[in-house]
C-alpha cells in the first residue's frame, strides 16, 4: 500500500516531466486513425488535406513526393476508401459525409462504408436525387426543389 503509493507518485512525476519536456507524442491509436500525423507528433491533418498541394504540416511532410507520387497506393491505407467501382477512390474522411463522393453512393450506403443512420439534421429518403445518397440536409426541405424521388422532402419533411 505504501509502496504502491510511492510507485504511483514516481510514475506521475515521470509522466509529468516527460510531458513538460515534450517527450510524449500524441500518436493516435492504430484502430482510430482518422488523419495524417505530422512529424511534430501533435498536428493531425484530415485525410482529404493530404496531397492537396497545400502544406498543412509545419515541414510539409503531408505533401512529400514519396507520399503523393502514386495516389492512392502511396498513401497509408487508413487515409483511403475504395469505392465499389475499382477505378475510383476517395479520402477516408469523405466516407459517410452525406455526399455521393464515389458517384455510386458506395461511400454512403454499402456495408464497407459502415455509415451511421441519418442524424437529426438530415431527412432520410431513398433514392435521393442529385449529389446526396440516402439523406438530405433538412435545410433543403420545402425549398421547392425535389431532392427525394418520392417528393417527401417537399411534402412531409419539416426544416
From TrEMBL:
Q: Which domain of life is it from?
A: Eukaryota
| Subcellular location(s) per record | Endomembrane system; Membrane
Cross-referenced Pfam families, in alphabetical order? Answer: Ldl_recept_a (PF00057), LDLRAD1_C (PF25241)
- PROSITE patterns, sorted: LDLRA_1, LDLRA_2
How does the UniProt record describe the way this protein sits in the membrane?
Single-pass membrane protein
User: Which cellular component, as a GO term, is one annotated location?
Assistant: plasma membrane
The principal location of this protein is membrane
Kindly give the Gene3D superfamilies that the UniProt entry links to this protein: Low-density Lipoprotein Receptor
Segment forming the signal sequence: 1-20
Task: Report domain LDLRAD1-like C-terminal positions.
Answer: 116-155
InterPro entries tied to this protein: LDL_receptor-like_sf (IPR036055), LDLR (IPR050685), LDLR_class-A_CS (IPR023415), LDLRAD1_C (IPR057430), LDrepeatLR_classA_rpt (IPR002172)
One of the GO biological process terms: vesicle-mediated transport
Keyword match Membrane: yes
- Kindly provide the name given to this protein in its UniProt entry: Low density lipoprotein receptor class A domain containing 1
